[in-house]
Amino acid sequence: MRKRIGTWLFRAVVGLLVVFLSLPLLIVVATAFDASGAVVFPPEQFSVRWFGALLERPTWIRSVLNSLFIAGGTTVVSMIVGVAAALGVRRFSGAGRTAVVGLTVLPLFVPGIVIGIVLLTFFSRFGLQQSYLAIIVAHSLWATPLTFSVVQASFARFDWHVAEAARDLGATPRRAFLTVVAPNVRAGLLVAALVAFVVSLQEFIMTLFLSGPDTRTVPVQAWNSLRQGLDPLVSVVSTILIVAVTVLILAASALVGLDRLATDT
Amino acid sequence: MSTGTGRLSVPALPERWRTLLLLLPVLLLDIGAFLVPMGYLLRLSVTARTSQGAFVEGSWSIDGYRYVASSDLVHQIFAFTVSFGVGVTLLAVAIGVVYAYAAWQAGRAGRIALLSVAVLSLFTTLVIKLFAVVLVFAPQGVLNDLLTGVGLLSEPVLLVDNLVGAVLGQLYIVTPYAILAVYAVLSTLDRHQVEAARDLGAGRWDAFREVILPHIRPGIAVATVVSFTWSIGAYAAPLLLGSGSEQTTGILISELLLTQFDWPAAAALAVITVTLVFSILMVILWRFDESGGILNA
Fold first, then answer.
1. Angle CA A223–A225–A226, to nearest 5
2. A238 within some domain
């Protein structure tokens, strides 16, 4: 009897945690579809008119474009850096490897607010504060350890003798990589790129300090309007972001399975 | 072998140089855009404070640290931030262990459901999460409406604009990291070990304590470090969901930097915060993580 109560208690706690984690997001989505301007739940009248209203607000459109551009830039930078580093440390073992891995993960252990103000003060010496470059570099600091670890994990699963065989048959390293290695680790590379993209899309604290009126991303724009009171457009934009992230995660887990996505990153 | 055009001359390089070339981007990024700026922060923290601008170029002074050491307000804020960080970390790690264990021992469908909720929450921007917390926990929010509606409460309880709100918001930010850090390690545990323990007569709880808990120590270490790093740097959650008395070091640093233009003091405070986080990281690495699991997380 006691055991059964324990089991039910455990289930109740887990159920509560699931609700705690997921319900608020569902509520945000639901409020986006309400006709009235007030942010209410449950929605009283279904409507998509706020999605139309979004299109008439240039600051929001701008922030969406900024987010996409910065996430794209972060993906490119952190993939180049991550893939090169994963190839570079492949022959390393012991201290050399630990040093490179340690260097890449270091920024993850510094609070975002500190990196934000550090890069703000540093980049402003060169007049680069509020630039796309500053934000992309900042996001890459956090995206690179993830692309690096995901790519490394898929390299570890690849049989490198095949690549050596290609080299023996006369392929250049670049050709061997593109025609033999890349197709085999394609899923891993794609997932790494998706993760980098999503990390950049959702990053907020560093961007808050590094962006200006022209380079604001969606989270920063949402924050600014939340500070002034509830705005139905925040629900709308949040919904778009949540759906976009869900689609990207589904794509990534279809590629490698949710289990690996949850453990590799 | 190589066709020898300019772009393809890389293969002709000796092995050691090629490795270096491959590591160049990562060294450039992490040294140029992280270590050097961190060094600059350190330098800023020992410049003289001035009312004519942000700091005195080229000067040396420990005024920033002296201000941090002598101001009662800073002490209060710092003490609050540390206890806030510790409290949130304990809660987040406890939730992470329970949740990860539930996902691990659930069937396939249950595991997918639990993990996707955690992953989705992980990848949702914290601004949306905090906005959601407002919608749910505000006096006119969903939860209070529900509880007063069914008659459990006669009037709404205040769950935002106070410490509860700040903690809820911060938990919402860090818990997904804690869950996945523990799960990543737990997923490597051989189920047969637990079955063997059960067969030998261990109860569910004993099996958990004797087999699972020792195995997930590195995961707990990672969860602790990540949760603590995030909570000690808490900014958005206490600002949006706390009241004036939930001031954190992060809020203070940004105020010193952006509104008071006191860069040496802001830098000194940031240096102290980073030092604190890294000391904790070192202690945990040394105590819990013999295998170096944190660096591989």
1. 60
2. yes
Q: How many domains does chain A have?
A: 1
Say how far apart CA B252 and CA B246 lie, in whole Å.
11
* CA separation for the pair A9, A14 (Å, rounded): 9
pLDDT tens, residue by residue, B131-180: 888 888 888 788 888 888 887 777 778 888 889 999 999 999 999 999 99
Q: Which of A76, A42, A51, A100 is nearest to A193 (CA)?
A: A76
Q: Which residues face A34 on adjacent strands?
A: A46
Residue A224 sits in which domain range?
58-264
- On whether any CB of chain A is under 8 Å from the CB of B222, the answer is no
The domain that holds A200 is classified in CATH as 1.10.3720.10
Q: Which residues contact B64 (CB under 8 A, 6 or more apart)?
A: B45, B46, B47, B49, B264, B265, B266, B267, B268, B269
With contacts defined as CB-CB under 8 Å, which chain B residues touch A200?
A: none
Fold for B71-288, please state it: MetI-like fold (1.10.3720)
> Are A219 and B128 within 8 A, CB to CB?
yes
Query: Domain locations in chain B?
Result: 71-288
A33 domain residue, yes or no: no
Q: In this complex, do A222 and B131 lie within 8 Å of one another by their Cβ atoms?
A: yes
| 3-state SS class at A13 | helix
ipTM of the modeled complex: 0.86
CB–CB contact B274 A227 (8 Å) = no
